[in-house]
């Protein structure tokens, strides 16, 4: 008796049915335990990323509006500083003119005071000069005439 064994690639028997059922149970469990939660996580992550993208775009718009506000405030601050600078220059010029005018008045007053002192000194000097000139003239005449003049 000869044993002929043929090995078939797929043999249809009870083990095939058991393997098929165990594969289907494994797929069901795998779907329940891993695939559905992963799909849910993936969906949640996609929603979170989309929400972040929306938040980022809103933050970008807010940043642009704040940048525009900052630029306008900077421009107004520069204009205010320019106006203050003009005002200070004008005020400084006005004060300088006032100081210059006061200095001119002081110079005029000093000049008048000095002229008055000079005039007073000249008048005093002229008075003493006349007396000395008279004395010198009298002395000269006395010597020239060789006699004494009595006043």
What can you see in these coordinates?
By secondary structure, the chain is mainly α. Helices cover 87% and strands 0% of the residues. It has 1 helix and no strands. It has one helix at residues 14-145. The longest helix is centred in the middle third of the chain and has 132 residues, at 14-145. It is rod-shaped, with a radius of gyration of 61 Å. The protein starts with 13 loop residues before the first helix and ends in a 6-residue tail after the last helix. The model has no long low-confidence stretch (mean pLDDT 87).
Describe how the helices and strands are arranged:
Blueprint: H1 14-145
Distance between the termini: 200 Å
Portion of residues in helices? over 70%
Structural class: mainly alpha
CA radius of gyration is 61 Å
- Beta percentage is under 5%
Largest sheet composition: none
Number of DSSP E strands: 0
Mean pLDDT reading = 87
Notable characteristics:
1 helix; 151 residues; 87% helix; mainly alpha
Task: Write a brief structural summary.
The protein is mainly α and 151 residues long.
């Amino acid at each position: 008796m000869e044993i002929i064994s043929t090995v078939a690639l797929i043999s249809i028997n009870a083990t095939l049915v058991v393997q098929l059922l165990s594969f289907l149970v494994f797929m069901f469990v795998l779907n329940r335990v891993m695939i559905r939660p992963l799909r849910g996580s993936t969906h949640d992550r996609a929603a979170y990323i989309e929400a972040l993208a929306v938040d980022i775009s809103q933050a970008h718009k807010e940043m642009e509006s704040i940048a525009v506000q900052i630029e306008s405030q900077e421009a107004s601050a520069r204009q205010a500083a320019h106006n203050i600078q003009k005002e200070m220059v004008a005020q400084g010029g006005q004060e300088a003119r006032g100081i210059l005018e006061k200095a001119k008045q002081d110079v005029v007053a000093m000049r008048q005071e000095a002229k008055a002192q000079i005039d007073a000194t000249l008048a005093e000097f002229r008075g003493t000069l006349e007396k000395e000139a008279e004395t010198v003239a009298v002395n000269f005449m006395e010597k020239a005439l060789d006699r004494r003049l009595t006043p």
